[in-house]
Amino acid sequence: MTFYERIILEIERAPQALSTVYDFAFRFTDEAYFEWTELDQVCSITYGETQQRIEQATAALHARLTSLPKNSPVGLYLPNSVDWVVSFWAILRAGFRPLLLNTIAPVEMTEGCIRAAGARYVIADRAFAGAEQITPAELREANGEPYCDWADDIILCTSGTTGAPKLISFDGKAVCAQIRNSGYILKNNRSVATFVHGKIKLLAFLPFYHIFGLSAVLLWFSCFGRTLVLLPSLSPEAIGRTCRTHEVTHIFALPVFWNAVADQVLRAAKRTGQSEKLERGLKLSLALQNLPIPRLGRFLARKLMRSVQKQALGDAVRFCISGGGALRADTMRVINGIGYPLYNGYGMTEIGIASVELRQSAKARLLGTVGKPFPTMETRIENETLRVRGQTCFSAEYRDGKRIPHDPMEWFDTQDCMTAEPDGSLSFAGRTDDMINGANGERIAPALIESAFGSPLIAALAAVELPAQSGPQLTLVVEPNQNNVYALATLSRRLYEKNETLPSAYRVQKFLIAREPLPLALTRKVQNGEVRRRIREGTLDVVEADRPAAPVETLYDAGVAEILPRVIESFSAVTGVPASAILPDSHFQYDLGGDSLTYLSLLEQLSESFHVVIDTDVAPDLHTPRAFAAYILKESE
């Protein structure tokens, strides 16, 4: 029996409660729980040190909330951090139910969730109307008598993909069932347990308040004493540097993350004239990963693509999962092709993590299926829609401050369109209310059309049907990464050229450019229904994208001129030199007094502002605002 199998068996035999999860996680007292980089130094905290902070915070929280009835909700509003984990467990140990709040949601939505749960207190780094704030510092600094009186419920907010979020809770029994599913993954794909230099390190990219981040990242891996790596920011440059520095081995993320990595790889190859070489490498790598011995195939693929990996997320990555929405087919091919085994998964807040494709050949992974349902749940497909029930489904729903129990063995309609393959694997098509009609009357998943047009030029897109005089019109609404004249003309040309290569049933009849961000669910997936509604009501700022009449190249200088002021603002922000005193050719170091640390800050700020990854091999040659503007513009091609 392996180390992992023994732990899963012990969890199965233990009381099915959140206190059990805590006891198992904090058995690994000397193992590093979290790692992060601070002032160019790798820092860490062990499970034992974290447990001491949790016990101190529990005592402080109990002393602060003596008048609050047991099992009352207490909000938790923090980014992924040691403080988040300390606060989470302290709330439970003090006898209260943590309400996990989304830190990127609008304030009004967050306050609505606080009211709906009936939470009187929120542990947060900011204040919210209607609730009393408790800061992480208060829990670190306060003293109190040791205390422990476990609650057994966690409250999550749904992602709001189809509207306002709901409040869903899971009891300890449902959470333990989720953790036991990791045993099914281990049984069917041993590569998830692959070490590098004796370590497994998981990137803490997914927020812990989301079911994917909570279950598949924080709880699964902490029960085995593995290390989570914290990010300094979500800029592409910071993510890549963190993965390389800490030798991250496992990455679980949303499609938007993997799309960005694939786009980065393709852009780097194009910039260096290596596109054809990359394509040959991808084909050979995928062929190697289809060898009868999967482990050997993955090893050879890593050897072949090591130079590409070192420029992307490092050469330590061994296991990846994408979840939370449909993944572009070209992204799946590129990520797997460069030697990062990427498996597609499926789940939602109400049912937890439901499945993941576990077949080890690249051919199976590229099918885009999300695997067979985990054994803790039953599934059936009615009218093309997936229905589920089982131990991992939600235990209750909160409305108007009241907890309404839910029987997890009742069939739950996910409203997700699914098809079942002959072997039982599921294929995700899209949300029921997002499906559209092709030119031949065939029902089409928007994700299929969106996947065909996805590119580094696009930040977000949505395929929707809009009314027109001649009947419903298949329309692609695009939010561009860059809004200068050169980038927009390049994007329009590419959209029309790509459209002409598609089968007639999939061709778009109109392209709209969004001049404001498209509405996103809390999973950062575009809300197609909301896009459709806002366009019909005239509340989304869009313009039709015409095919460029003149050669795009003639707009290059105008594009640089548009970008320059924003680049200069970033130079000013990191150097402290007024923007009015910075010229297009001012040298970062010699004219503005910048150093190596502020230069890294500049790279992060520019990459986040312009949605680009600045190649570290090219960066040393970029010293002036004009040089950066030209580089960023070229990344728009």
What is this entry, summarized?
The protein has 637 residues and is α/β, with parallel strands linked by helices. It folds into 4 domains: 31-151, Rossmann fold; 188-389 and 414-431, Rossmann fold; 435-549, GMP Synthetase, Chain A, domain 3, CATH 3.30.300; 553-634, Non-ribosomal Peptide Synthetase Peptidyl Carrier Protein, Chain A (Orthogonal Bundle). It is 38% helix and 20% strand.
List the SSEs and their pairings.
Layout: H1 3-13, H2 18-25, E1 32-38, E2 41-46, H3 47-64, E3 73-77, H4 82-93, E4 97-100, H5 107-117, E5 121-124, E6 132-134, H6 136-141, E7 153-157, E8 167-171, H7 172-188, E9 201-203, H8 211-222, E10 227-229, H9 236-246, E11 250-253, H10 255-271, H11 275-288, H12 294-304, H13 306-311, E12 319-322, H14 329-337, E13 342-348, E14 352-356, H15 362-365, E15 377-382, E16 385-390, E17 396-399, E18 402-405, E19 412-420, E20 426-431, E21 436-437, E22 443-444, H16 446-453, E23 458-466, E24 473-480, H17 485-499, E25 510-514, H18 528-537, E26 542-544, H19 556-575, H20 596-610, H21 625-634
Parallel strand pairs: 1-10, 3-4, 3-5, 4-7, 5-6, 9-10, 11-12, 12-13, 24-25
Antiparallel strand pairs: 1-2, 7-8, 8-17, 13-14, 15-16, 16-19, 17-18, 19-20, 21-22, 23-24, 25-26
Helix pairs in contact: 1-7, 2-7, 3-4, 7-8, 10-11, 10-14, 11-12, 11-14, 19-20, 19-21
Describe, in plain words, how this protein is organized in 3D.
By secondary structure, the chain is α/β, with parallel strands linked by helices. The chain folds into 4 domains: 31-151, Rossmann fold, CATH 3.40.50; 188-389 and 414-431, Rossmann fold (3-Layer(aba) Sandwich), CATH 3.40.50; 435-549, ANL, C-terminal domain (GMP Synthetase, Chain A, domain 3, 2-Layer Sandwich); 553-634, ACP-like (Non-ribosomal Peptide Synthetase Peptidyl Carrier Protein, Chain A, Orthogonal Bundle). Helix content is 38%, strand content 20%. It has 21 helices and 26 strands. An 8-stranded mixed β-sheet has the order 6-5-3-4-7-8-17-18, with helices on both faces. A hairpin with a 2-residue loop joins strand 17 (396-399) and strand 18 (402-405). It is globular. The model has no long low-confidence stretch (mean pLDDT 89).
